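Researcher: Structure for this, please.
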Amino acid sequence: MLRTSAFTCIVRHWTFRSLRQALAAALLLLATALQANEIQVSNPTLIGTNTVNATTQVRFDISWANSWRTSSAPNNWDAAWVFVKYRNANTGLWNHARLGSDAQHSAPAGSTIATGLLAPGVAYDAATNWGVGAFIHRSADGTGTFTANGLELRWNYGQNGITYADIAEVKVFAVEMVYVPQGSFSVGDGTTSTVQGQLRNGSTNTPLVINSESALTLGGGANGNLANNNAFGMVTADDFNNTILQTLPAAFPKGYSGFYGMKYSITQQQYVDFLNTLTRTQQNTRTATGLAVGVTSVTNRYVMSNSSTVQNRNGIRCNASIDANAPIAFYCDGNGNGSGGESADGQWIACNWLTWADVAAYLDWSGLRPMTELEYEKACRGSLTPVANEYAWGNANIRSGNYTGANLGTITEGVSDPETGANGNALYASARITPNGPGRVGLFAGAGTDRVNAGASYYGAMELSGNLRERPVTVGNTQGRAYTGVLGNGDLDATGNADATNWPGANAQGAGLRGGNWIFGALLMRVSDRGFASPALGARSDIYGGRGVRVAP
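Model: Predicted structure, token format:
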């Protein structure tokens, strides 16, 4: 049975507002919750503040449904990646909180907290290698709703260069993840007739087993080389082929090492929450509508598509009248009635109209990183033997025929006519919902659905085939191969771009596309298809989304 969520909002934040005037001695920060589904936090507060050491504990309860941990195949679990932002009372700016070590957090019975360090594999140091966030998950095998009460994360606020009096507001964010264990896996599925640019073992028509993070020779025909079927059918050919060799450095993440991947694509509410912590200049960079400082009147209020109306189901919107200088408050208004945040406003629909730079900025801001195309293939098929022409759900079968949508735009958006049996479920050209656009993340997963009918990957990640295109880092050019897997630190540059080193730049050189989408045909959804693995496509599109990963602690 597929152990994943039937509902889909992945990010939720909670706001603490200072009550210093009323509770000067207690310095208690209370929370106002933004409604979301599945993953929930309650009773958040700051306790145990030590103004001498400049530390405090962020305490909260967390719960999400359809959680799992299993010691049998696939030997993994789901988790919440939790990170904290605070608004400085002096500057008005949002910043990323620097968290403590594992020993400084507190996990109740049945749960585990694992700190995600700025530089994993290096010893924790409060000043130089702090906690960017933390993974929270089950400590023993189990399935169903997971609840952990009284979790505490140490915040070394002094390491942020502030005093307790500087804290005006705090937000806690949580992203659902799945664990992909360390181990060997195969790339390519052995098919050569129509799978474009497929990875394979040298000149053979067989998959290549990735069994370490060591450097690989790209191209050529020798056994053990990572070849690409002579770049057959690729829109932009890799810079290696049957005769031209390149080297994939050891530092490039190949997927052998264990990592966490986002269970779902970035949702529209996630992206709204992200935008609402940025400066006005950063917001202007990360949206399509012109919202630069000085603008006070907005016609194209659907800011991701630069339109006055909803385009392809993206409902991220701002008000018509805005302050000339202050950051803008964004919200979801997918039903277009002018009232944001309602139950049918599409908060849980996968966020489209994202550029590569948008995705990179979101991942840097959240302490994650882009996945590579090798990690993409592992996340899809896991350690299983590849199946010819397979999709992310592990076989080559797929429904053909449009769906009838149900509860559109809501937390329970689904389809009223899902297929049963051997045909996988996904949104693509021959199986859509109306109106045209991406669906709610986790659209086909429900209690009792198996991997195939939920359209899920081996490890429980959703929509790696169909819905919106993935944006992994390519092995096919020098810009992609320069990627070393540096993690986001939670902060962006002043213009709103990711500032992590060796990531593909804002022009998308080094980034590619995998996994198909809601408007293209089924062939592009196949796990091994690399037709668009290498072109630099930096522009916005209604078919582009994104998700990230993070190395396991």
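Researcher: Any notable elements?
Model: The longest strand covers residues 55-69. The first helix runs from residue 268 to 275.
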